[in-house]
Write a structure and sequence with these properties.
Blueprint (H helix, E strand, L loop, with lengths): L3 E4 L7 E4 L22 E6 L25 E3 L5 E3 L7 E2 L5 E5 L14 H12 L14 E6 L4 E6 L6 H4 L7 H4 L19 E7 L3 E6 L12 E6 L3 H10 L4 E4 L1 H4 L8 E6 L4 E5 L10 H10 L2 H7 L5 E3 L21 H10 L3 E2 L5 E3 L2 E2 L1 E7 L3 H16 L3 E7 L1 H5 L6 E6 L5 H9 L17 H12 L3 H17 L3 E7 L1 E6 L2 E2 L24 E2 L2
Parallel strand pairs: 3-12, 3-13, 20-21, 20-22
Antiparallel strand pairs: 1-2, 2-14, 4-5, 6-7, 7-9, 8-9, 10-11, 11-12, 13-24, 14-24, 15-22, 15-23, 16-23, 17-18, 18-19, 25-26
């Protein structure tokens, strides 16, 4: 067994550690839905499944959908590259018009030609008031989209929106295939037709999604012919099935990934990410909504210890949604671990320790419930560590686990160990996380954060075409968030994957929170070659 290490910075989008390079035969040769496939097949264990496979409802909005293509795509370094467009867009001097020239050699998987009308249909349908797309606000700057013939599309913005091109990695749906269906409930949501490198062949909810290579893909037929995404929410079960040979690859917490270090024929890949773990502090709760409680918790938590003990070094301390390594990070907003200062802060605010050590003010006990999704070991360990740190300063956080269906009912009252993050642009995180009028809109602004100063700066950052003005706005947002933290940000986690070492061309990108199905070492699986 040999070991080799490849390293690159944030811009290179990957830290890859190969633990064992010796190849071995695949765990199974029949490519069955639940068994490791042959070398031209890949069975992946992921934690979550999408609610829909339709881009009209938000699927694949960050790219890498496998079933679809966007006008643009991201390369390994997250640089924008043409996909269904022939080149990057032409942008008017005022930043309000984006013109894309489209490829003329692309067909959907049902044989229908791809045209500008499909682009117009996709964007207009997403923005329609009757479409239940939780990411609709991503396109708030878009005023209109129009076709100029079959192979040119023109987007007109209501105001300059610097990262608009990043939004055009959004997958394009087939206007004809959707036809007269109800966009929210129709068959297209589970039986989509796209232009991408793979075609969906089956979806057993809660179990698996299966794909086959599109033989007529405009980018060339993939060598990996079959994909199976096995839906396995429990981390321990995914690890067990990987070890037994049921899976070729899986996303795992760092401590479980480490148990495969001596397994020949497997590689472990650490992908840097913008994915944060944070505790929501609902504004309407009399304890979590108290500014002094929030500020005390913010300096009571030992972030570095969480990185060391929970992530085993595979991540970084988080002081907000923007990673400290990002050029958009506001220097000086780091919060040091200082439980003594936290206790003094609570003392001065009138939160006095009770007989049991838990603080009380005006008859209100400093206690709240903290939820995490069942089966998610990383969130569980973050929640328990956070509760322990809170207890040290006299705040009682009772940790509970449950399904998201249970947690959803408690979002406005109880704290949640949440996750999120996108590396593409600060607007993508900060706006949906903090904008007050998005509170209660799905998983947007889960903490019901309400800060007029933040709202103002978020609008400046979103609407300005000047990079310096945007940088100043996002710095102001981060400083306001440090002063009144509606969330306790804990860590930015690396995404850790263990997989068989059968393919060449495997790499990682800097990943968003959403990973597993599209984002992972298989982000470019259509370009892999099968090692002979």
């Amino acid at each position: 067994m040999t070991a080799r290490t490849l390293r690159s910075g944030m811009t290179a989008a990957a830290v890859v550690t190969v633990l064992a390079a010796a190849a071995c035969s695949a765990p199974g040769d029949d490519g069955g839905d639940d068994e490791g496939g042959g070398h031209d097949a890949l069975v992946i264990g992921i934690a979550n499944e999408p609610e829909s496979l339709s881009p009209l409802l938000g699927y694949g909005k960050d790219g890498n959908s496998k079933i679809f293509d966007g006008l643009l795509r991201h390369d390994e370094n997250l640089e924008l590259q043409p996909a269904l467009a022939t080149d990057l867009p032409q942008v008017s001097d005022d930043g309000l018009t984006y013109t894309y020239t489209l490829r003329d050699d692309v067909e959907f998987s049902d044989g229908q030609p791809f045209t500008a009308q499909d682009v117009v249909f996709t964007y207009e349908t997403i923005l329609d008031d009757g479409t239940n797309n939780p990411a609709k606000d991503d396109l708030a700057a878009l005023d209109s989209v129009a076709a100029d013939g079959d192979h040119t599309v023109v987007f007109t913005l209501a105001y300059p929106y610097a990262p608009f091109a990043e939004r055009t990695v959004l997958p394009i749906a087939s206007a004809e295939a959707v036809g007269g269906q109800d966009v929210n409930t129709g068959d297209y949501n589970s039986e989509p037709v796209g232009t991408g490198p793979y075609v969906v062949t089956g979806w057993s909810r809660g179990e698996r999604i299966t794909f086959e290579a599109n033989p007529d893909y405009w980018g060339g037929e993939p060598e990996v012919k079959r994909l199976t995404m096995a839906i396995i929410p429990d981390d321990d079960v995914r690890a067990t099935r990987l070890r037994s040979g049921d899976l070729d690859a899986a996303v795992l917490p760092p401590n479980l990934a480490d148990t495969f270090a001596e397994d020949e024929g497997l590689v472990t890949m650490n992908a840097e990410s913008a994915d944060f773990r944070a505790v929501t502090l609902p504004t309407g709760n009399p304890v979590t909504g108290d500014r002094d409680i929030r500020r005390a918790l913010d300096i009571a938590v030992d972030r570095e210890l969480m990185v060391e003990r929970i992530l085993e070094g595979a991540g970084h301390a988080a002081h907000g949604p923007v990673p400290a390594s990002s050029p958009w990070f506001a220097e000086g907003t780091e919060r040091a671990h200082d439980p003594d200062a936290a206790r003094r802060m609570l003392d001065e605010a009138g939160w006095e320790p009770g007989e049991d050590g838990i603080r009380v003010r005006d008859g209100q006990r400093a206690e709240f419930t903290l939820w995490y999704p069942a089966g998610d070991r990383l969130r569980q360990e973050h929640a328990l560590a956070y509760a322990s740190d809170a207890k040290e300063i006299g705040i009682d956080a009772t940790v509970e686990s449950g399904s998201w269906e249970v947690i959803d009912e408690r979002l406005t009252e109880d704290a949640v160990l949440a996750g999120g993050g996108s590396p593409a642009d600060p607007d993508f995180d900060l706006y949906t996380l903090l904008k007050s009028d998005l509170a209660g809109n799905g998983y947007n602004n889960m903490g019901q954060y309400d800060n007029p100063a933040v709202d103002e700066q978020l609008d400046i950052g979103r609407r300005s075409g000047d990079e310096q003005e945007r940088a100043a706005a996002y710095e102001a947002v981060q400083r306001e968030l440090a002063d009144n933290p509606g969330y306790t940000f804990l860590t930015h986690i690396d995404h850790v994957y263990v997989m068989a070492d059968h393919w060449d061309g495997v790499s990682t990108q800097v990943e968003p929170h959403d990973h597993g199905l599209g984002h992972g070492p298989w982000w470019n699986v259509e370009d892999w070659t099968v090692r002979s």
